[in-house]
Amino acid sequence: MRKIILQLLYCVIVRLFLRIFVGVKFDKAKFLLEEKQFIIVANHNSHLDTLTIMASLPRQIVHKVRPVAAADHFGKTKFKEKLTNYFINALLIQRKRDKDHPENDPIYRMVHALDEGYSLLLFPEGTRGEPEVQQRLKPGVSYVLLQRPQVKYVPAYMKGMGKAMPKDDNLIVPFTSSLTYGQATLIQSNDSTEILQQIEQDLNRLK
Amino acid sequence: MYALQKIFRLDFIDNNDILFVILLIFGILIFASTLFFIVGLIKPHAKLGELKARTNSWWVMASLFIGATILNHTLAYIAIGLLSFVAFRELYSVLDFRASDRRAIFWAFVAIPIQYYLAYIGWYGAYIIFIPVAMFLFLPLRLVLKGNTEGIIQSMSTLQWVLMLTVFGISHMAYLLSLPEIPGFSAGGRGLLLFLVFLTEINDVMQFTWGKLFGKHKIIPKVSPNKTWEGFIGGVFSTTVFGYFLAFLTPLSTYQVLLVSFALAVSGFVGDIVMSSVKRDIGVKDMGSSIPGHGGILDRIDSLSYTAPVFFHLVYYIAY
Predict the structure, then answer these.
(1) Which B residues in the span 261-300 are in contact with A, Cβ-Cβ below 8 Å?
(2) Residues of A with Cβ-Cβ distance to B290 under 8 angstroms
(3) Backbone dihedral region of A160: left (phi > 0), alpha (psi from -120 to 50 degrees) or beta?
């Protein structure tokens, strides 16, 4: 039931809304079907980012992808948490690491979700920041990739989202924007800094 | 129940004049597709990719336009309004607006359904002043209230210009459908709309074709190196001839229709080079990539944004 709701929501309603009203140009995402599991790594400028990536996914796997979101923002109230969990299928994590309680530790939770068979959607910039300005990537994604090196990451770059709906404004103003996918790639290093550099280069190439 | 019937009335083609022109349009398209197909068979190395893509897009555009405007009266206004919406979004997105302009831009978006509603109910007085007067006065106020004065002149003028070009100009297409009936003129507003769009697009194609075949002397090389006197004169001439033969779609006399077709051809050219100059200023070749072979929506309707108001007001002055 939930699978059908998510498919209807993202592959029909949200996709039509983004394409026709907001003016998002989607890249083809069929190639994701060939991967058993992946981590989508995207730049982050707007609340529309998550919706855009989710709406771009092939219908068959939309319920298998969990966007990773900050618990302090989206889990503020029980109600908000329930909504986010149900309709966005989100994996809520805290921003700080917690090695004493692995059930709270963000890296542990992401790896655990991968082990359960889910794919992840990550915004390693952490926050949405200024429109159209890319920030430094946070290292969390590289720790996850290091622990599960057989999982490929997929860079995704979005342009214009921060103008359609910037951080400080909840009003959506249509703006011609786009989503571009890069290739699914395996990490080529054991060093977290080098992995981050590799991801950052991949993202910049999509600009 | 009556209201529903009024909205969803499918007034199918009961008009021989309009039916004839629709068949003519699809006839031309079939001819072009067959031609490129045969040329492709004879000369497999000829570079027909772009021409084929263009023709295929023409098929889609012609079908959409005819489907939306001829089948149902209400749908026609919504479809043309949607065209304005996409064109407005496409154009303002490539222009450099400040982050603080968002609220004013939002209100400019709100103006689109209002403008088309005014056209729909046929309130000419309000329709004709809504954007040039009401929005012209209101949008700067919204910008001023935001308090960011740096670059505000540019935002005020650019926003109004985009709105005039993509919404006010294009909405003249819709108002053609709201013109009162003239006794003895059966094609009506739909006929006029068909005349306007068909002639504008034929004009684009003719200017392009004449220019490709015989073009030598550049008109305005700094703006658009592909525009030549040969293409311009050939295009204006052919369009006027086409207009003469399509006069049955209008309530105009022979001389009037020649004059109107001539003015339409010239203004189509002007709309084309105005948009070319804008693209040159921003540094892009096409406005977008939504129509294969043509670029964005605006690359296709740039001339319409000029021909629609010119055609409308000439006809309105002469016949109504």
Answers:
(1) 288-290
(2) 25
(3) left
What digits encode the pLDDT tens for the residues B179-198? Answer: 998 888 888 888 899 999 99
Please answer yes or no on whether A176 and B99 come within 8 Å at the CB atom. Answer: no
Contacts with B89 from chain A: Cβ below 8 Å = 23, 174-176
Q: What is the pTM of this model?
A: 0.90
Give whole-number Cα distances, A100 to A68, A79, A115, A204, B65, in Å.
21, 28, 21, 36, 65
Among chain B residues, CA nearest to A132: B99
A67 has a chain B CB within 8 A of its CB: no
For domain A2-205, the CATH superfamily is: Glycerol-3-phosphate (1)-acyltransferase (3.40.1130.10)
Of B89, B99, B105, nearest to A176 by CB-CB distance is B89
**Total Cβ atoms within 10 A of residue B70:** 21
User: What is the tally of structural domains in chain B?
Assistant: 1
SS3 A24: strand
- Window from A57-71, B62-76, B130-144 with minimum mean pLDDT: B62-76
- Model ipTM? 0.87
